[in-house]
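> example.struct
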């Protein structure tokens, strides 16, 4: 088989690490956003 159709283990490991890093940052952004929304809702509740 050619080199393009069969990726090396190093390339697979690198892609897996990049996916984990991307997932971690996406999770951080989601958690931060939910905290901001919850804080805003709490402030609105105090005004009522």
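> example.seq
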């Amino acid at each position: 088989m050619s080199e393009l159709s069969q990726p090396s283990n190093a390339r697979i490991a690198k892609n897996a690490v990049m996916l984990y890093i991307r997932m971690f940052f996406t999770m951080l952004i989601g958690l931060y956003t939910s905290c901001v929304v919850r804080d805003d809702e709490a402030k609105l509740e105090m005004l009522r």
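> remarks
The mean pLDDT is 87.
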